[in-house]
Amino acid sequence: MSDSSLDNLPKGWKSVPNDLGSDQTAFKGVQWGKAMMWIFLLSDTFIFSCFLISYMKGRGSTVVDWPNTSHVFSLDFMGVPVPLLLIAIMTFVLITSSGTMALAVKYGYEKNRKMCGHLILATAIGGLIFVGMQAFEWSKLIHEGVRPWSNPFGAGQFGSYFFMITGFHGTHVSIGVIFLFIFARKVYRGDFDTGRRGFFTTMKSDYVSIEILGLYWHFVDLVWVFIFAFFYLW
Amino acid sequence: MSDENDHKLEAKSDYVADAPSVSTPDIDAVPEAELPDQELYHSHSWWTTYVFSQDAKYIGIQYALTAIGTGLLGLVLSWLMRIQLAFPGLGWLEPSSYYQFVTMHGMIMVVYLLTALFLGGFGNLLIPLMCGARDMAFPYVNMLSYWAFVVAVLVLLASFFVPGGPTGAGWTLYPPQAITAGTPGYNGGIILMLISLILFVAGFTMGGLNYIITVLQLRARGMTLMRMPLTIWGIFTATVLAMFAFPALLVGCLMMTLDSLLGTSFFMPAMVSLGETLTHEGGSPILFQHLFWFFGHPEVYIVALPAFGIVSDLLSVHSRKTIFGYRMMVWAIVGIGALSFFVWAHHMYVSGMNPWFGFFFATTTLIIAVPTAIKVYNWILTLWRGNIQLSLPMLFSLGFIVTFLNGGLTGLFLGNVTVDVPLSDTYFVVAHFHMVMGIAPILVIFGAIYHWYPLITGRMMDETLGKIHFWITFLGSYAIYFPMHYQGFVGVPRRYFEIYDSPYIDTSTLLLNKFITIAVLIVGAAQLLFLYNLFASARLGKKSEKNPWKANSLEWQTPQMPPEHGNWGKELPKVYRWPYDFSVPGAKEDYIPQNQPPSEIIGAKVEKT
Ligand code: HEM
Ligand SMILES: [Cu+2]
Questions:
Q1: Domains in chain B and their CATH numbers?
Q2: C or N: which end of chain A has fewer Cβ atoms within 10 Å?
């Protein structure tokens, strides 16, 4: 393209719709699956926002006081109740698994099958630990009498929102873990190198799928940070 | 890919008499392909071809037929309700049945008919064809989307057969009464309704991702966004709205399901029911209203925007004229879509909210009327001095403009808090939303079906039957809904199962109710005519030529009509212009398809797009 035609392109803000609206693809060089995951995550963001906003509204309008969360969520460690102990570990594990996921994507694009597979497996295990610890926390709370409809510490809505939102998030993590295991197997088997076709979708495997799964995984972590802040720090 | 072979100019340049004899091949250049050609899924068995089809065209037809079938049930329910209203005291319906029918009618029409038909039906059929793609981006997930919709419909229908019957809470499903004794279906039907909605949202999300990504990432060479037909703009924007509005519905449904099944109190305040104090305490019913309407208002535009888009194209094709103000139309669609997320509480003026809150939402509501009005002006200016063909799609499009204008004007009344408060929950609201969201989009759907029928079946629908269908439907709708505006003004409340002679009800209302019901039954009968036409024409209809309406958009330019699997044969189309070059001075024909290379129309004064 000659310089003069470049000069004809719109400048400043006008260039944004112009670029987006240009030929064939709106996001240049972005594989469609990746764009699709981004849109899905945006939509999912709205789901979690609705949950958290409802939680704020619900918490603000109960007739009974909200339970003292630093008391409810504390864990006895050698006889001393330590607030936020369990949750700190959970959060640490989940964030770490985001790191291993990012590395897996890098090794995937470098076609380093072994490292990529190991790291995906590590991510999956991190996720499993997180879900396990969440199950532990749920059962601890249930033991102490916290139910979705009532609890001994205060407003019944505490249990309602807690179980619903962490449960919804935990479901996200669990689905992610399942896919991580499937992908680990696919990586080890070399599907992404040979372009083997998906069992259901019949589409060719491509390393970009690992990045797409990574997007999902990072999103689930990010949402957790918000849930953490809203439930445990407020 | 090499383009050399496509530029055999010498042979073609005699299209226009005084064409310059030399022209550089450059004028036909389109940008290089950015993507490799899409790989297609090929079915191997009867099941994967016709049932679990992954071809967007099939999925679109499947969606459309399922939606229309469900819509027919909604139609029959409306007849039953109207008979009850016309003849109170006859004991035609139990009060509980009346409420159940109102509820199911409303929900079916809004979600399972209109949303599914516009986005699932027309979206699947038209997006790949009009964008010049071979199929949706992710056909497997697209197929799942349809089947999730089928399951959602089945769950909804199942609620007719559970003890207590379907829910009678009204399509807005407001708690606490939706899940409290006294409301029909409060512990069975409502659960199935909520589950069905959750399934619908899940299924829609799978389809919606496909619609969005196919439009954004899979267009043909040369198809810039500003060359897309407005139909695609409408469906695309509506899908984006749906992706961001349905989450609120999903969350609301999930929370109400838990309230009902687990006894949580998200939406349930402390209550005394049948003399007993319920165990619920401390929940917020208003929260549900916010969630519902954060979905509910965008939802009305999810239905309206595809109708806007489709009608723009129908008007342009059938008046052989360029759409007036294309860019303005696009920005209006996008602007309405964005604004529609900031007006939801105009449905809650009587919920006891802070007057300042109402003031804010009245303002945003009235602002949204600006882009909407722009669109109406542009439709009329498109017709202005056009070569108007009174074909069926044109008739229905004209019907749409007046009907939509009518409903939009009553919307302005309702948008003002002080005017809305007395009108809220009266038949005026019923008249408003049926005009604007019931009749207007349905007229577009009919027009669109008459228009695209040859593309699907290769045959035309019968013109005479269609005209009868149009006039009865159009005039009949006015006979039905005009009187309702008046009824609303004299204060007849909506959702009452029996309106009989009383000091509070004007006697004219009773007579009008009978009149409306007769009109309803006649209009209903006309729809049977349409159904007959729809199914019989597939075999008996006159064979259609290729591109029977002489339209420019890509769906009519496929090598075969009806298009085959993969749509485009060997080579994907290349796009050189927008789809609105009609009656261009200097051109041989009065239309120039989007994929006709410039070298073939030398001399025509086309607008640069
Ligand atoms: C100029 C544009 C519009 C304005 C200002 C407007 C305003 C309103 C207002 C204020 C209400 C609430 C009335 C009440 O409950 O008291 C309402 C109800 C409604 N509107 Fe509109 N509207 C407009 C356009 C539309 C469009 C385009 C659609 C659909 C395609 C639509 C569909 C509905 C529906 C379905 C309801 C009733 C919901 C229910 O209560 O069951 N409106 N409108
Ligand atoms: Cu609204």
A1: 53-601 (1.20.210.10)
A2: N
